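Lecture notes, continued. The same structure-token format from the folding unit now serves as the input rather than the output. Read the line below as a description of shape only.
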């Protein structure tokens, strides 16, 4: 399989490495520019986007990572990773870096800051085999997206979803070219279908 890196500065790195291995990829942690240059694709894990943003500076990964994304390296961001890949963030820190790759605006902690988590079964375009059980942890949503961004999943309009009416139908999974992102954490559920989709993208099969 392809060699897929997981950005390993902070966040749930192990879970992504395991999910990638189970999805037919070879998985490796990426902390240094030399490691980044070896991988065929990169996962940006869940965690804290402001912290990851600072660590990208400290580990001198910001410029090489932007360069690889601009050159078309496939990337998948979950939650904090989605925030980093968006062109613009609302409710972020002023000095938070955006890597870009997804022509959209995300809102951090969108479902309510005080809400730790919720779970919902989602229809996910391009993932066969029934709904995907989505775990949201202080998750962002996509506030708006350019037509170039393909919407793959939305939360329901169930009033149980934290955020109430404002949250109904919000976009929570997207793809633009070789960049995939989910506001939730498939790496935590043992369901590898989203990681398999990403591996297929890296292999050029999807
Ligand atoms: N709230 C976090 C952030 O803003 C994301 C949370 C997560 O990745 N589970 O980066």
């Amino acid at each position: 399989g392809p060699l897929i890196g997981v950005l390993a500065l902070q966040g749930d790195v192990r879970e992504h490495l395991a999910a990638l291995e189970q999805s037919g990829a070879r998985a490796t942690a990426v902390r240094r520019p030399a490691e980044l240059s070896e991988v065929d694709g990169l996962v940006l894990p869940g965690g804290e986007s402001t912290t990851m943003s600072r660590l990208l500076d400290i580990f001198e990964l910001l410029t090489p990572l932007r360069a690889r994304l601009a050159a078309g390296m496939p990337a998948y961001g979950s939650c904090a990773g989605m925030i980093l890949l968006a062109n613009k963030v609302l409710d972020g820190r002023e000095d938070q870096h955006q890597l870009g790759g997804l022509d959209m605006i995300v809102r951090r902690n969108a479902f309510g800051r005080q809400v730790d988590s919720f779970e919902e079964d989602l229809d996910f375009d391009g993932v066969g085999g029934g709904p995907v059980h989505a775990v949201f942890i202080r998750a962002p949503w996509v506030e708006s997206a350019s037509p170039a961004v393909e919407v793959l999943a939305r939360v329901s309009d169930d009033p149980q979803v934290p955020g109430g009416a404002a949250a109904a139908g919000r976009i929570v999974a997207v793809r633009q070219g070789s960049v995939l992102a989910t506001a939730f954490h498939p790496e935590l559920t043992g369901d590898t279908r989203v990681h398999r989709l990403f591996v297929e993208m890296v292999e050029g099969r999807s």
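Point for the exam: Residues 46-49, 79-80, 83, 108-109, 137-138 surround glutamine (CB under 6 Å).
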